[in-house]
Write a structure and sequence with these properties.
The complex is a heterodimer of chains A (860) and B (302). Chain A is of the alpha/beta class and 860 residues long. Helices cover 26% and strands 26% of the residues of chain A. Chain A contains 16 helices and 36 strands. In chain B, helix 3 packs across helix 5, helix 5 packs antiparallel against helix 6 and helix 7 runs parallel beside helix 8. The chains are: A alpha/beta (860), B alpha/beta (302). The interface between A and B is large, with 51 and 66 residues.
Chain lengths: 860, 302
């Protein structure tokens, strides 16, 4: 059927579905068609008059030719009327909705091709990916467009700009090259922005009036359906589009949903130190419908295969595979988890940036200085973190540095993984700001209290109604450590609720002795409802003993009692060291998170005060080097790199200020970069190198698609659209009831032009005019058969011109206007182009003498 | 262009007053032209004169001609050239037609021709008679060779007004009866008449053994049909009117007209009658030349 329609010329549409007018209110112009008739009738009333002697001949001639003359008059009148009628019709822009597939004179269409470029389209069914199929379909759509059609190109991707070709392109070649250049992204799909941009592109006044939007996608559930609020937003956007354009959905998916992905990769421990077994946990999810057995999961460390394991994952379930690895060197390390290749390769690997700290630097602020070391507030913490015996100095990774409270503001906190405050009386606003910046940048703060602590100061500067670094506000003190009578027996820890990671090791160990550490005094705190603070450990009285809260990228903990023996016996209790260690590690654990990012998320790094003039270079996974200019925000400088469309490892080097003045193509605010591949973009040799891992959002790995029925009832409920399984020639078949509308306007205008040429010729010499009319009619009917190219048109035009000339020349020869007198010929016999007008001038003097034979006969 | 020729132009003549003057100017101009032209087609000699040959009687030398031409011609006696010329002028309504392209109406043109011919004839001391007619003979002048007769003739012509229908057939019959003596009959008419009746009328003349010279006077518009705009044609002589789109009708009309002319020519040729077509925009010397040529031939024959 489709084949048949391709070749049949469009003279007789097979089914005239509808006839309409684009501008029906202009049909009053049809009344103009009566004008020539009126003129004709009026003309009859205003004739010239003359006496005429040779009447008998005139009567005879009229009698013999009356019928012919009337016919000629009618034809002339018809031609004049048709001109006006066609003009009126053409203004009304008639549209014929017919099922004639390749009507030559159809209205131009603006086509908006939307390609799904989310990484699920990289799923390979046979040899080609869904994206390749979509690109092929897009190319076909563009190639099929007729001259006068315009094409726009958009894509579905969460972070890349939706618009590829914004201005309606009337030249298919430019769009074809854009399609070829399109690359699959690593991003998930997001329809919302694309639909908004599509609406804007539709409104472009340069584009043709008839519009069509074609979506080439695999119709993933994540993108096309989802939760109800998102679906209703999409529905509204689709409704607005459907009001102006015809929506076509082309499914280029393959219907398969088998896919396994690495959904997570992280260290189990918050901070990684060298020569320690580090636990690495990777999550493997099976998105497909069949169970997977014996999946080989490989772990690569710094590019080398470190370990592999075999995992079984049931259908639609996730399993966690744990590896252990010892990092021998401090510094930046890259860990990668890999799955064997399957249908969708983009989610079969995941990276993790593991900064292995050489040592853990802890700053301990001593709030109470005494002569005897053991009476310093920081003594026990310091001892726990760096125990030295008389014989051996501490050589472990943790390096605590103890300073007095007064020296806090002079310290550069960014070099510390954790800051421990012991019984610090009060902080100055400067110190509070420093701590705030430090914590938000990923640092960890542990507050321990004591008798010198001024709660008003803490609450106003450090808690700041939940905006500060203190997890909770300090209440009043409970208990009395100076009570020598020990009337109160003291408070112990509640060993019941041990969910938090810090105290998790104590779970299931009832004899660990938590409940035997006695605390005499503590600050009462209350975690307000809705606060993100978490209670780590409680006293048996129910009040929290340890509270933690996320502050920015970092963490903050509060121990409501003292870390020395002034208020509690806990520091000398065996549970103290492990809890302190875990606390410190937990606090310091905030620093690694900013290294792991999703595709599209910007890489950010706060620069310390020493680094504000540094030169920052980012190397993307494709090897390109970008220079990033730091941005000054309030009181801190930070670096933002947003070009994270590709998954993989990004290297950021923060070095000293730039010395070379090479041609740097730098960035303004906002952090977007330009590629500068000159030598001056080399990362500074003596800078700090940091690794960022950018991974795909594995929600997109769920290849589950929405079928048409669901679409019709949810996202596209009540919206007319056409659903196709592939884009092919047969897209205009009978089943497609919303057939194209073809415009007759251009045909009408051509006809008008032809008639206007014919009319004066008819009036002057009927024969010539009629011949021309017939020529035009034949040409008009034969036009669909003429090949649509410039050569064909040229040949037809030449033939036409030749025909006209031939008619004029030979027509004159065959049907000459008879002159009975030789003197009436002004020029060469047999040729006159213009009619002879009656002359009133003196003709006798310029005429040649008539020739007369002796018999008086005339020569003619 | 020589001065004398301008008087052949009907347009120039129309500006002058007095038919007599016009006739004289035509004739004299013609004669002058004959003398001056190096290529005159026939000899200067009129039938009425014979060139002097030594030995001829000097009494008969025409001194007027000598005065004009410096040549000696002998006059022929009246008996020798005794012939009567009857000029029959159609004064029916159709002859009154004048198209915008013509300077004079057909009747006027015919009158110029008639007057010039009458001048010529009188000059040769021959007799000329005259008749006007429409559907009946309105005036009839018997032939006379007196110069005063010429005046009377011219006066009569000036007074003639076109009107009435054409009825050539019965007229010719009538006239043929009236013109007893055998002579030259010149018919000046547009001959817009049924060809059959025309034929029978002319036959009557032939029966009478008259020498008939048919000069058909037509208006250029009647032959060319130059009308462009839709026109209502008002028929003369009682014929109905007709509104027509001339451009589309032109070819057909001309075909009809030519057919008519051909028929007339054919009739005249069959009856060995002299025929000439005169268009009112043509110079008048054509008519004169034609006439005189015929006279020469006739003279040669007799």
């Amino acid at each position: 059927m489709a084949e048949y329609y391709r070749h049949v010329p469009s003279l007789f549409p097979r089914g005239l579905l509808a006839f309409g007018f684009a501008n029906p209110w202009l049909l009053w112009g049809l009344a103009l068609g009566a004008v020539p008739i009126l003129i004709h009738l009026l003309h009859r009333l205003t004739y010239r008059e003359t006496n005429w002697a040779a009447m008998r001949f005139l009567l005879e001639a009229t009698r013999k030719n009356s019928r012919r003359m009337r016919l000629e008059q009618l034809i002339l009148l018809a031609v004049r009327t048709l001109v006006l009628l066609f003009a009126a019709l053409a203004f009304a822009e008639p549209l014929v909705e017919a099922v004639a597939p390749h009507t030559r004179a159809r209205t131009p269409i603006q086509r908006i091709v939307v390609l799904d470029a989310s990484f699920s389209m990289g799923a390979k069914a046979d040899a080609e990916t869904r994206f390749d199929r979509a690109k092929k379909a897009a190319r076909q759509i563009v190639a099929e467009s007729l001259p006068g059609d315009a094409v726009n190109l958009l894509r579905i991707a969460a972070h890349s700009g939706p618009v590829v070709v914004r201005e309606p392109a009337f030249e298919p070649d430019s769009v074809l090259s854009e399609i070829d250049r399109l690359r699959l992204t690593d991003e998930p799909g997001d329809l919302g922005p694309t639909l908004l941009e599509a609406a804007e592109v539709l409104a472009d006044p340069r584009a043709p009036k008839t519009k069509e939007i074609i979506f080439l996608s695999d119709f993933q559930r994540l993108t096309w359906a989802g939760d109800s609020s998102r679906t209703s937003n999409l529905h509204d956007s689709f409704q607005r589009l459907a009001d102006r354009a015809r929506i076509v959905l082309v499914d280029v998916g393959d219907g398969r949903t088998e896919n396994a992905a690495v959904t997570s990769l992280q260290t189990a421990d918050p901070i990684v130190l060298p020569d320690r077994p580090t636990r690495l946990r990777t999550g493997i999810r099976n998105f497909g419908p069949t169970n997977l057995a014996g999946v080989r999961v490989e772990l690569y460390v710094d590019g080398y295969l470190g370990a592999f394991k075999s995992a079984d994952v049931r259908a639609r379930e996730e399993t966690v595979v744990e590896f252990q690895h010892e990092f021998h060197n401090a510094g930046e390390h890259i860990v990668e988890a890999r799955l064997p290749p399957d249908a969708l390769a983009a989610d079969n690997q995941r990276w993790l940036s593991v900064p292995v700290a050489e040592r853990m630097n802890v700053l301990v602020v001593n709030g109470r200085e005494e002569g005897r070391r053991a009476e310093n507030a920081s003594y026990y913490v310091q001892t726990v973190l760096a125990p030295s015996t008389a014989r051996e100095a501490w050589s472990g990774a943790t390096r605590p540095k103890v300073i007095s409270e007064a020296d806090l503001s002079a310290e550069d906190l960014s070099q510390y993984d954790c800051v421990f405050l012991c019984n610090v009386a009060l902080v100055t606003p400067t110190e509070a700001a420093l701590l705030q910046t430090y914590a938000e940048g990923g640092g960890g703060i542990v507050f321990t209290l004591g008798d010198r602590v001024k709660p008003e100061n803490y609450n106003s500067l450090l808690y700041r109604d939940g905006q500060g670094v203190l997890p909770v506000a300090l209440g009043s003190r409970l208990g009395d450590a100076r009570d020598q009578d020990r009337a109160h027996k003291g408070f112990t820890f509640d060993a019941g609720d041990l969910d938090h990671p810090i105290v998790a090791p104590f779970r299931g160990n009832p004899n660990a002795g938590l409940e035997r550490a006695v605390t005499l005094e503590y600050f009462q705190v209350k975690v307000p409802p809705g606060s993100p603070a978490r209670v780590v450990l409680r006293f048996d009285s129910g009040d929290p003993a340890i509270v933690e809260r996320q502050v920015g990228l970092g963490r903050s903990l509060l121990i409501t009692t003292s870390a020395d023996v002034s208020w509690s016996t806990w520091p000398v209790h065996p549970t103290f060291p492990p809890i302190i260690h875990e606390t410190v590690r937990f606090a310091a654990g905030g620093r690694g998170h900013e290294r792991q990012r999703f595709v599209g998320e910007p890489l950010t790094r706060t620069l310390s005060s020493r680094e504000t003039a540094a030169r920052v270079v980012v190397i993307t996974p494709d090897g390109a080097e970008h220079i990033v200019r730091p941005v000054q925000n309030e009181n801190k400088a930070e670096v933002v790199f947003s070009d994270t469309g590709a998954r993989g490892i990004y290297e950021m080097t923060v070095g000293p200020a730039a010395t070379s003045k090479g041609p740097l193509k730098e960035v303004g605010r906002g952090g977007r970069t330009a590629i500068d591949s000159n030598a001056s973009a080399r990362p500074p040799q003596d800078g700090r190198r940091e690794i960022f891992a950018v991974n795909v959002d594995t929600r997109e790995s769920d290849l589950e698609w929405v079928d048409e029925k669901t679409l019709r009832s949810t996202t596209l409920a009540g919206i007319p659209y056409v659903h196709r399984s592939e884009w092919s020639e047969g897209q205009r078949d009978l089943a497609d009831a919303a057939a194209e509308s073809s415009g007759l306007s251009s045909w009408l205008l051509m006809a008008i032009l032809a008639l206007l040429l014919v009319e004066p010729l008819l009036a002057w010499s009927f024969r010539h005019g009629f011949l021309l009319l017939c020529t035009f009619a034949v040409c008009g009917l034969a036009a669909p058969l003429v090949p649509r190219n410039t050569w064909g048109g040229l040949i037809v035009a030449v033939l036409l011109a030749g025909g006209i000339v031939a008619v004029l020349l030979f027509g004159r020869a065959r049907w000459p206007i008879r002159e009975s007198s030789a003197v009436n010929r002004r020029s060469a016999p047999g040729w006159r182009l213009w009619p002879r007008f009656p002359s009133t001038g003196n003709r006798a003097t310029s005429e040649p003498e008539p020739r007369q034979t002796s018999q008086g006969r005339l020569d003619s | 262009m020589d001065d004398y020729r301008k008087y052949f132009d009907p347009q120039t003549l129309a500006k002058l007053t007095g038919l007599d003057l016009k006739a004289r100017l035509i004739v004299e101009g013609y004669l002058t032209g004959l003398h001056k032209s190096p290529y005159s087609g026939f000899s200067v000699e009129f039938a009425e004169h014979r060139e002097y040959a030594p030995g001829d009687d000097v009494r008969y030398v025409d001194w007027k001609v000598f005065g004009k031409t410096d040549r000696f011609y002998l006059k022929r006696f009246e008996e020798e050239t005794n012939f009567a010329c009857h000029i029959l002028l159609d004064a029916s309504e159709s002859m009154a037609y004048r198209s915008p392209g013509a300077a004079v109406s057909k009747l006027e043109y015919a009158e110029y021709v008639a007057a010039a011919l009458a001048h010529l004839v009188i000059r040769q001391q021959d007799a000329v008679g005259f008749a006007t007619f429409n559907n009946s003979v309105t005036r009839f002048l018997s032939p006379s060779s007196q110069p005063s007769h010429l005046k009377q003739l011219v006066h009569l012509m000036e007074q003639t007004v076109a009107g009435g229908e054409t009825a050539l057939g019965p007229i010719f019959h009538d006239l043929a009866e009236r013109i007893r003596k055998r002579g030259l009959v010149i018919i000046l008419s547009d001959l817009f008449e049924d060809v059959g009746t025309l034929l029978s009328g002319l036959k009557h003349f032939r029966h009478r053994r008259h020498d008939v010279s048919v000069m058909q006077v037509i208006d250029p518009a009647e032959q060319d049909f130059p009308f462009e705009d839709p026109t209502r044609f008002l028929g003369l002589e009682g014929l109905p009117e007709q509104s027509a789109e001339p451009r589309s009708l032109r070819r057909a009309y001309q075909a009809e007209f030519e057919r008519f002319l051909r028929q007339v020519r054919g009739i005249c040729g069959d009856m060995q009658m002299d025929y000439v077509l005169l268009r009112t925009d043509r110079p008048l010397d054509a008519a004169l030349r034609h006439f005189l040529t015929r006279r020469m031939q006739r003279a040669g024959r007799t």
